[in-house]
Design a protein that fits this description.
Pfam family, one: Dimer_Tnp_hAT
GO molecular function: protein dimerization activity
Low-confidence stretches: 20-36
Oligomer: single chain
Shape: elongated
InterPro entries: HATC_C_dom, RNaseH-like_sf
Distance between the termini: 81 Å
Number of strands: 2
Strand content: 5-15%
Protein name: HAT C-terminal dimerisation domain-containing protein
Length: 241
Amino acid sequence: MLGTLLRLEELKETLILSSTNLNRDRITRATSRTNEISLEEIFNDKIVKFIDEVISNIKARFESNALKFLDCFRIFDVSEATNEQEYGIQEINTIRQQYPDDFNDELVAEWKVFRKYLFVQKQQQKSAILTQRQQCINLVKNGMTRDMYPQLSLAVEIFLCAPISTATVERDFSTMNRILTDLRNRLTTEHLEQLMRISIEGPSDLDDDLKDLIINNINDRLHFFLLRTIMNDLYAYVKTI
């Protein structure tokens, strides 16, 4: 998390240094004049203030102890990997102490092997390919790597699941309110969950195959409804004979 804060600070400095002066013509009723607008002033007034607010909110979201704990996962950053024997040991021990019921001495042993892999990546100049987060995701998704480093993979899962904000939860509640209207108040929990998953995780555009499937399903239901209506009318007619 400290790495994120540092990158935001670097982004702010980059925006300020790369700012140039922008000339814009401004025409009034009385006269025409050229006003010089400094992009640096725009950045300081808008963008830099926004970045500062993001930084302050992230700091407020996490306590100092939580920030220090999440910063332990910077050891997965390939650009910072070294061949020193003590590299990452203190951070791994901090993670193990934070979750004593989930990790044991095997976590340190797995890290000693995995850090050699990170250092080889750095020597081969692959740091631009896998970032810290991508490295963690790859460790979790790769089945063979996950089997080789089970405890290290579990530690990475904890890091990747850290809730930085509540925005996702708030969007989920908005989706639920949008789906569960007064006319749909009889939806079951299972059905509501399925509709929310489609709305949140589904594709923005439907492909032709899925459209055809939906249309065919609707047509089948319409045919069934019409057939049932005809049968009911026929039965009612027969009863009157």
